[in-house]
Predict the structure.
Amino acid sequence: MPLDTSTYDLALLRVDGRRWNELRRLHGQIRTQAAADGSSYLEMGNTKIMCVITGPSEDAGKRRGLAASAATAPGGPNAADVVVSIVVGGFSSVDRKKRGRGDKRIHELQATIAKALAANLHVHLYPRSTIGISLHVLSQDGSLLAALINAATLALVDAGVPMTDYLVACTAGSTSTHSAGDEDADPLIDLNTQEEQELPFLTLATLGATDKVSVLVCETRVQVSRLEGMMASAADGCKGVRNFLDRVVREKGQKMVTEGAIEKGASMAMDIDV
């Protein structure tokens, strides 16, 4: 279906034909790995992530299926530890750069995700246990941290781990660089790789449909006057992502009820717990 541009200036469209407040195409699945406790597959544009959940299990010393360099958010003696491991495929980006286990960038992503999820999950229900989250990056085209957080949230819902609400993330940028000094620059949401390389941007994660910020990462220079608009746009994008994730979960639950995999009463109870 062609984009209706009758009331919109073509000069304001982005390189991929989107308007400033439009998300890229989203595609998600849960329960993609039958042998895993929870699993998901998520596409945000051309960024593709696969996530596998192990646990909650009491074999904290083994960390089954997780790399030795995984980041851990300790929950203390009366709560579960959240362990996050990220594996980036050498074929996931154009430059085909192979990242080692000790890569600083990967370790920062792991630590950010582990702390954010540990604050959202009800880890006190699983003392002396480990929740392992293994994320595999199959393709990169911008908004990597946001896609990783969203994929992990989907997989944790599939695993049945209690949480306060969906933890959803989205990126937002500015249409002008820091050096340009343009105070009237417009914000953009859900940036791709080309936009991230040229424009200042941030990644914001919110809790459910609220505006409560759980993660805020900005690694580029940007004027303070633009920051509020970028954060507001990212929060609006998070609401759209949250609606999409909720639809994926509900459609899968409805399909399981239709196929007779679970009883209707059990499905309702599961929805209340989540």
Notes: The beta strands are 26-30, 38-44, 47-57, 71-73, 81-88, 130-139, 167-174, 187-189, 201-207, 213-217. Helices lie at 104-120, 144-159, 193-198, 224-259, 264-273. Residues 1-8, 60-64, 267-274 have pLDDT under 50 and may be disordered.
